[in-house]
Amino acid sequence: DLKPTSVSERTIKTDSQIKSVLKTKSINLNSATMDQLTMIPGIGPKTALNILEYRKEVGRFSSINQLLEVKGIANSKFEKIKNFVYVQR
Fold first, then answer.
1. 36-47 pLDDT tens trace
2. Phi and psi at residue 28, in whole multiples of 5°?
3. What's the per-residue H, E or C state across the chain?
4. pTM of the prediction?
5. What pLDDT does 16 receive?
6. How far from 16 is each of 8, 38, 45, 53, CA to CA, in Å?
7. How many CB atoms lie within 10 A of CB 84?
């Protein structure tokens, strides 16, 4: 067995994975991974990292509106992503 290299160990997003993530309210902000967050249109690695860092520093999200407190998420970006996320406490 060949071990995958570090580059190929990364999760490759297939069309079916992306389509399943793009269902309305499919990403829980309190358990989302970097890969899940970056599947959301408008969320790149930097913003995803900011969300994860916010969650680590502040604690669990109690509302999706808290995304507006995350560096890099203004009203326009929030409007684009709010239909893809939810909060489960």
1. 999 898 899 999
2. -85, 115
3. CCCCCHHHHCCCCCHHHHHHHCCCCCEECCCCCHHHHHCCCCCCHHHHHHHHHHHHHHCCCCCHHHHHHCCCCCHHHHHHHHHHEECCC
4. 0.75
5. 63
6. 19, 15, 20, 28
7. 21
Sign of the dihedral through C-alpha 14, 67, 31, 83: negative
Handedness of CA 36, 39, 44, 45 (dihedral sign): positive
Mean pLDDT by 10 residues, the chain (89 residues): 44 57 78 93 95 96 97 95 91
**Residue count (the chain):** 89
Distance CA 53, CA 40 (A): 17
